[in-house]
Design a protein that fits this description.
Strand order of the largest sheet: 2-1-3-4-5-6
Helix content: 25-40%
Distance between the termini: 22 Å
Number of strands: 8
Strand content: 5-15%
Shape: globular
Number of helices: 10
Radius of gyration: 17 Å
Largest sheet: 6 strands, parallel
CATH class: Alpha Beta
């Protein structure tokens, strides 16, 4: 079953390059893309519509349709998780959803689960100075930040940040708390226990309809580069498959365990050039 991976605000598909070259890619089709206004995709011709959670979810669903994918597990990091939740009523083939750093907040309650203003206000600011770009990257990635991540923030369409936050505050899109409290889609919630921006206690106040292992997970070490995430994806994939095939799930794994990632030659990567949904690209 394919796994669609969706990155966060002002990032790019490169955040998943370790997983795309890792063990997970050996027996699964991994798909990721740059939403409009990010990475290798063009800026949106209609920012008012496209730079919202519903607009981004529509783009993701359109991509899957173009690729002929009728069933998939979805992973979303931060904003990507919000897009994933927004996809639930739009993509009937979603067999599992995993989110990290994504607060399933009710409509018009955007700040309810944040410890501080998201990314100190930079996440919703249209224009960033060079110093602010550095601060944004360090706040999110810390010591794991690589040069391409800074380039991604600098490249991102600033109108996206401004419009996305305006639309969220205006209540555009589904009520995300209500969605996860009523959807039968298997949901895994995995966060870093040292997350400085979200209130981890908030996650435990949500009455999830179908939560993986019946609880939210907070890992001691969490980052886009950690190989432990590969194992978690495998567990979620098994959990989603079991929901339809009744097979026994994979055993859980100690979060601190590190798993070596070998090179792998066959990985699928997709993104949005211009305003059309593209064909699939294979990277050597």
């Amino acid at each position: 079953m394919p796994v669609l991976r969706i990155h966060g605000n002002s990032s790019c598909h490169g955040v998943f390059h370790h997983q795309l070259h890792g063990e997970l890619a050996q027996d699964r089709r991994l798909i990721t893309f740059d939403p409009p206004g990010h990475g290798e995709s063009s800026d949106a011709p209609d920012p008012m519509r496209s730079y919202t959670r519903p607009g981004l979810a529509d783009a993701a669903v359109e991509l899957l349709e173009k690729l002929g994918v009728t069933e998939a597990v979805v992973f979303g990091w931060s904003l990507g998780g919000h897009i994933g939740i927004e996809m639930i009523p739009r993509f009937q083939g979603m067999r599992g959803l995993m989110v990290s750093g994504t607060l399933p907040i009710g409509r018009n309650n955007m700040a309810q689960g944040f410890v501080a203003a998201p990314r100190s206000g930079l996440a919703g600011r249209q224009d960033l100075t060079e110093i602010e770009i550095d601060a944004f990257v360090q706040a999110i990635f810390g010591r794991s930040a690589e040069p391409f991540l800074r380039d991604a923030v600098a490249r991102a369409d600033g109108r996206f940040r401004k419009r996305a936050f305006e639309a969220s505050r205006a209540g555009k899109g589904v009520d995300q708390r209500l969605t996860v409290e009523t959807s039968p889609v298997p949901l895994a919630v995995v966060n870093g226990e040292a997350d400085r921006f979200v209130n981890l206690d908030y996650f435990d106040t949500v009455a999830y309809a179908n939560l993986w292992e019946g609880r939210c997970h907070a890992w001691p070490v969490w980052g886009m580069r950690r190989s432990g995430k590969r194992r978690t994806f495998s567990i979620l994939y098994s959990n989603a498959s079991c929901a339809t095939s009744k097979r026994p799930p994979l055993a859980t794994v100690e979060p601190r365990q590190r798993i070596g990632i070998p090179k792998h030659q066959d990985r699928a990567l997709t993104f949005f050039p211009e305003i059309e949904v593209p064909e699939e690209h294979h990277f050597a």
